[in-house]
Design goal:
- The complex is a heterodimer of chains A (about 200) and B (about 250).
- With about 200 residues, chain A is mostly helical.
- Chain A contains nine helices and no strands.
- In chain A, about 70% of the residues lie in helices and about 0% in strands.
- Chain A has two domains: about 120 residues, Rna Polymerase Sigma Factor, Chain: A, CATH 1.10.1740; about 70 residues, Arc Repressor Mutant, subunit A, CATH 1.10.10.
- Chain B has two domains: about 70 residues; about 140 residues, Serine Threonine Protein Phosphatase 5, Tetratricopeptide repeat (Alpha Horseshoe).
- The longest helix of chain B has about 40 residues.
- Chain B is elongated and about 100 Å long.
- The chains are: A mainly alpha (about 200), B mainly alpha (about 250).
- Chains A and B meet through helix 2, helix 3, helix 5, helix 6 and helix 8 of A and helix 3 of B.
Chain lengths: ~200, ~250
C-alpha cells in the first residue's frame, strides 16, 4: 500500500509542472529503480555507462509521456519505466546488430509506437531548439514552462509577475510568434524543408 | 496565413478545442494545403521546444545522478538478487555479532548500547533556519531523519570539509557516526568536542549525554563518569535519570 502511495506521489510530482517537485520525483526514480535497470543492461551485454544512458533516456521518455495531467497509468510506475528501458536496450542491441533475447520476469506492458519519438533528434529540431535560445530569456523560459514542463498558466503568471492569466497567455503567444519569425527567417530551416 | 488560423492551430495544440471544433479542424487539414502546411510548421516548432526541453532535462538528470553518487551513493547500483543475498547475510552477521557483543560486554557498555539503539530525534528547528544555506547540510539532515546514517555521515563530512561547519553540523556529524551500522565512537567524540568548542551553549545537554555514551563504548569509564555526574546532578538535564542509571551500573 505504501509503495502504491509513493508511486502516486511520484506521478503527481511529475505532473505538477513544478521543476523542484519534478526533480524530487526524478531523484526518487533514480534511488528506487536505477539498480533494476542497471542489472538488466549489465547482465545483457551492456556496461554500467550504457545503463546510465538507458536509464536517463527512459526517464525522458517516461516524463514526456506522463507529464500531461490526463495521462492514466495502467500498471505500476516501476513496471512502466522498466518496460521503457527494456525496449530502449532492445533497440540499442538491435542497432548494434545483435539479436537479443532478453529474459524478464516482469509483467509485459504494451507501449505506444510513437513513445520513443521524443528521443529522435533531427537537424530541424536542433535548429529550432537553438533558435529558442534567441527569443530572450523570459520568452525561452515561458515557452519551456508551458509547452515542455506543462506548467499551468496561473503559475507562469505568478512567476513572471504578469497581471492575469490572459496576460500570461498573451505573453506566451507573443513569444511563440517571435520564435516562428526566427525560424521562418532562418535559411537553414528553409533549406531543411527542401532537402 | 491568417492570424485567426494561427490562433486556431495554437489552440489545437493546447487541447483547447471542443469536439465539434476538432472535427472541423480535421476536415480543414484534409482540404486546405496552406492550412496543413501551417499545421506542420507548428508541429516543427513544438518538436523543437521539446528537444530543447529534453536537452535541459538531461542536464538536470546528470546533476541529480552526480549528486546522488556524491552525497552517499544512495542509488542502488547492485543487482537485486545479489543485494538481497547481501542484505540477508548482513542481517545474520549482525545478529551473531550482536549476540556475542551483548554477551561479552560489561554492564555499562550493555546499557549504553541499549540507549544507542534509539537514534536521537532531530527536530525541524535543529539548524535554526540554516538548512537552506548548504545543500550537503540539507541532505545530511534529510538522510539522517530517513534513517540513512551512512549517507548522512558522508553528507555531514562534506559540510565539515567545507570549513563552514557550525556547532550543529559537528553535533549531527557525531550522531551519524554513533548510529551508522558500524559506529565510530572516537570520531563521534571528536565531532562532539569540536561542536562544544565552537559553541559551548549549543546542544550542551545532548552533546554531554552522547559523549558519555561514546566514552563508555571506548572503555574510558573515568571520563564517562565525570560527564554523567554532571548530567545526573543537573536540574535541567533531560538525560539526568538515564545518567543516574548508568552511574549506578558503573558502581559510581
Amino acid at each position: 500500500m505504501a509503495a502504491i502511495n509513493e508511486e502516486q506521489l511520484t506521478l503527481q510530482r511529475l505532473q505538477s509542472g513544478d521543476a523542484r517537485q519534478q526533480d524530487e520525483a526524478f531523484r526518487l526514480l533514480y534511488r528506487q529503480y536505477y539498480g533494476l535497470v542497471e542489472s538488466l543492461v549489465v547482465t545483457n551485454n551492456g556496461t554500467p555507462e550504457q545503463a546510465k544512458d538507458i536509464f536517463q533516456d527512459g526517464i525522458i521518455v517516461l516524463f514526456n509521456k506522463v507529464k500531461n495531467e490526463d495521462f492514466v497509468l495502467s500498471s505500476s510506475l516501476k513496471s512502466y519505466l522498466f518496460a521503457i528501458c527494456r525496449n530502449l536496450w532492445l533497440m540499442k542491441l538491435r542497432t548494434a546488430g545483435r539479436e537479443p533475447s532478453l529474459e524478464s520476469h516482469h509483467e509485459h506492458i504494451p507501449l505506444d509506437d510513437n513513445l520513443f519519438d521524443t528521443l529522435v533528434v533531427t537537424e530541424k529540431k536542433l535548429l529550432i531548439a537553438e533558435l529558442l535560445g534567441k527569443v530572450g530569456e523570459d520568452c525561452r523560459q515561458i515557452l519551456g514552462l508551458f509547452y515542455y514542463q506543462k506548467t499551468p498558466m496561473a503559475k507562469i503568471m505568478e512567476v513572471f509577475g504578469l497581471g492575469s492569466e490572459q496576460a500570461a497567455k498573451n505573453k506566451k503567444s507573443q513569444c511563440l510568434k517571435k520564435l516562428r519569425e526566427l525560424v521562418l527567417g532562418s535559411p537553414f530551416y528553409t533549406k531543411s524543408l527542401t532537402d | 496565413m491568417e492570424q485567426i488560423d494561427i490562433i486556431l492551430i495554437e489552440r489545437y495544440f493546447e487541447g483547447d478545442l471542443n469536439e465539434q471544433e476538432r472535427a472541423v479542424f480535421a476536415q480543414r487539414l484534409q482540404a486546405d494545403a496552406r492550412f496543413a502546411e501551417a499545421f506542420r510548421f507548428e508541429q516543427d516548432i513544438l518538436a523543437g521546444i521539446e528537444t530543447a526541453g529534453n536537452q535541459r532535462l538531461r542536464e538536470r538528470l546528470d546533476a541529480i545522478y552526480q549528486e546522488e553518487i556524491k552525497h552517499g551513493a544512495t542509488i542502488r547500483t547492485m543487482r537485486p538478487l545479489r543485494r538481497w543475498w547481501m542484505l540477508a547475510a548482513a542481517v545474520v552477521a549482525g545478529l551473531l555479532i550482536g549476540w556475542w557483543w551483548l554477551g561479552s560486554q560489561p554492564a555499562a557498555q550493555k546499557l549504553a548500547s541499549q540507549y544507542l539503539e534509539q537514534p536521537f530525534q532531530v527536530e525541524d528547528s535543529f539548524f535554526r533556519g540554516e538548512t537552506d544555506e548548504n545543500q550537503a547540510r540539507t541532505n545530511g539532515l534529510v538522510q539522517y531523519r530517513n534513517g540513512d546514517f551512512e549517507a548522512a555521515a558522508a553528507s555531514m563530512e562534506t559540510v565539515v570539509a567545507s570549513g563552514t561547519a557550525k556547532a550543529g553540523d559537528y553535533f549531527l556529524a557525531g550522531l551519524c557516526q554513533l548510529f551508522k551500522a558500524s559506529p565510530d565512537f572516537a570520531i563521534a567524540l571528536d565531532f562532539f568536542t569540536k561542536a562544544n568548542a565552537l559553541d559551548p551553549a549549543a546542544y550542551t545537554d545532548e552533546i554531554n549525554w552522547y559523549s558519555a555514551l561514546a566514552k563508555i563504548q571506548l572503555k574510558n569509564e573515568p571520563a564517562a563518569k565525570a560527564v554523567l555526574e554532571k548530567l545526573a546532578n543537573s536540574k535541567s538535564s533531560r538525560n539526568a535519570e538515564q545518567a543516574r542509571e548508568l552511574l549506578e551500573v558503573m558502581g559510581k
